[in-house]
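Deliverable D5.2: sample structural annotation.
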Amino acid sequence: MRKCFLLFLTGLSLMGCSSDGLSGKKPPGTTIEIGNKTFETTLGTYCWGNTCVDTAGPIYLLEGKEPIKVKQGEIISLVMDYNPKPNEFYLGQISENKETEVVMKDNQFTAPTQKGVYYYSYGVWWMDDKAKNVSNGDSFYAFVIEVN
């Protein structure tokens, strides 16, 4: 598995990594499920194996993509068919150039109740069980919904 650390010093940040076997050349795909429909997410920034890729944020990464239509308050599930499962998660919602963290329970969250277009950044980490603050791999996924 890939092991990474990030060290912040005054005016300087250092990152180091080593690889020790998460499978595949890229992180696993993640889908979202709404009702009985499944939608792909877009892979963004990630560190996997010996490779780190930095991409634009969700709004630019999804430029030109049609938002997924959802109902107000609808349950949205994030699904990753991969083992081992990541053990740290973050879901950020971007609307009107402001990002807020979204609380998830069992990899699910509720769509906003106000109509509009919402961009999401879903970050996952495979943190090492034995070494504090060491990541074995990470990836970010982006998707956009339109609440109508």
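Annotation notes: The radius of gyration is 16 Å. Residues 7-14 have pLDDT under 50 and may be disordered.
The annotation will be released with the project's public dataset once the embargo ends.
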